[in-house]
Amino acid sequence: MKDDLLELLWEGLLETLYMVFWSSLFALAIGIVLGVTLVVTEKGGILEAPKLNKAIGTVINGVRSLPLIILIVLLLPLSRLIVGTSLGPTAAIVSLSIGAAPFLGRIIENSLKEVSAGKIEAAKSVGATPFTIIFRVLIPEALPALVRGITIGIIGITEFTAVAGAIGAGGLGSLAIRFGYQRFREDVLIATVIVIILLVQIIQWSGDSIAKSINKKRYKFE
User: Fold this and answer.
1) Which domain holds residue 99?
2) d(C-alpha 110, C-alpha 102), whole Å
């Protein structure tokens, strides 16, 4: 193990965590809007609007069909416009957020669709408004599934940062490519893989724990 290994890993880990945190936050904000809109505007939904639903679905499918590295390249001008540069972790957040948002949107849509139609009808029968149904019925009832889905999304973003590292985003992915592969540093390559695996495991464990905690509280009060 060379003297600079821990320093390189620490720097790469901090950059990856920085990208994952902000990309997840922005992607989740967009994804929630997309997912909820898809559910409530579908045929028979509480705010039925088939044309809007189809338009949003088409955009989501279009973005999701693009390979991430191509999407990142296409969004480089936008990154430069927003943050003033197309290189580094901050620039990558723009591309990662936009790339992950449709993925999270679909996950959130599927989670919300697990809510029993009977509970929605019951809320309608007592005069609940669409927004009340969304925030008092749909989201609370789907919360455990949402947490698990969002966990998968964050893990996906963690993997995306490794891809973004190939074009100058920094982080553990860039470290593995620049030092591990291009400079033939097997110690860096192996250590980077181990750190990424551990990071993914921690995220998965945290998500599962939160979902289980929500379920326990729900069963306690039911």
Assistant:
1) 19-170
2) 12
CA dist., res. 76 & res. 53, Å (int): 29
User: Kind and range of the H or E element at 26?
Assistant: helix 5-40
Judge whether 1 lies within some domain. no
208: in domain: no
C-alpha span between 185 and 170 (Å, rounded): 17
Residue count (the chain): 222
Domain tally for the chain?
1
CA-based nearest residue to 196, from 17, 8, 2 = 17
CA nearest to 112, candidates 141, 153, 150: 141
Q: How far apart are CA 179 and CA 198, in angstroms?
A: 20
CB 99, CB 71: distance < 8 Å: yes
Residue bearing tokens 């620490």: 10
- Residue ranges of alpha helices (H) inside 66-184 are 68-74, 76-83, 89-112, 117-125, 130-133, 139-141, 143-164, 171-175
pLDDT tens, 54-112? 999 999 999 888 888 888 888 888 888 888 887 888 888 998 999 899 999 999 999 99
Q: What is the DSSP letter of 180?
A: I
Question: What's the whole-model pTM score?
Answer: 0.87
User: How many CA atoms does the CB half-sphere of 35 hold within 13 Å?
Assistant: 28
Query: What would the two tokens of residue 71 be?
Result: 């999407």
Beta-carbon-side half-sphere exposure of residue 168 (alpha carbons within 13 Å): 9
